[in-house]
Design a protein that fits this description.
globular; about 25% strand; about 15% helix; about 220 residues; five-stranded mixed sheet; Protocatechuate 3,4-Dioxygenase, subunit A
């Protein structure tokens, strides 16, 4: 599959700022500069198959449990846009990931690492009026591929499936800046540098909670 060039997060921020300024002067000019859709990544074999009652935006706690998930608690925030840099409200953001030990709560995951009975692992949230979503989770561990009969390791990552009526569904993955395994990740190496940058998230400190917050924006193409 051939991928078009994807702008970096810095470029996206700059273009959105320019678009906001142009909108004040001329709404038509504000949407004249298109941005590229987020690169597609494989869904992987561990998309959740068992229905769960709790699929809210806080993956660190399960309703009815008194304990929180094991691991470093983080926030993941971002906006969902169309290719004309317009924020998309009511987009469905579907996320799933491995736990602190590198294992998915999935019957096909043969990783001998332990499950965490207090980690939700899967969440669904809709974007607000300005296209924002917010998720509270733990930083997933990298994991060895030896349990799957392969060599090497997968870096830390979170799976995203983002959809909205009138736009193409995107399945992708968010990676963490500074993870040394990124340099050998085949899913990223097949992309352009700009494409890779679009999927690697930087963190800042959330002033209200004191938690690290990772920014991850998603761009959807119209159908």
């Amino acid at each position: 599959m051939k991928y078009r060039r994807c702008i970096t997060r810095r470029e996206l921020t700059g273009r959105l700022g320019i678009a906001a300024g142009l909108a004040t002067l001329n709404p038509v000019l504000a949407i004249a500069k298109a941005i590229e859709p987020t690169p597609v990544q494989v869904e992987g074999p561990f998309y959740p198959v068992a229905e769960q009652a709790d699929k809210d935006l806080d993956l660190t706690r399960i309703k009815g449990h008194t304990q929180t998930a094991t691991g470093e608690i983080i926030l993941v925030r971002g906006q969902v846009f169309g290719t004309h840099a317009q924020p998309l409200k009511n987009a469905m953001v579907d996320v799933w990931q491995a736990n602190h030990y590198g294992r998915y709560d999935h019957p096909e995951d043969k990783n001998p690492a332990p499950l965490d009975p207090h980690f939700q692992g899967w969440g669904l949230v809709k974007t607000d009026a300005d296209g924002w979503y917010n998720i509270k989770t733990i930083k997933p561990a990298p994991y060895s591929l030896s349990a799957f009969g392969e060599s090497g390791w997968r870096p830390r990552h979170i799976h995203f499936k983002v959809s909205r009526p009138g736009f193409e569904l995107i399945t992708t993955q968010m990676y963490f800046r500074g993870d040394p395994l990124i340099a050998r990740e085949e899913e990223l190496l097949r992309l352009s540098e700009a494409g890779r940058e679009a999927l690697i998230s930087d963190s800042t400190l959330d002033a209200a909670s004191g938690l690290p917050v990772f920014r991850f924006d998603v761009v959807l193409a119209a159908t």
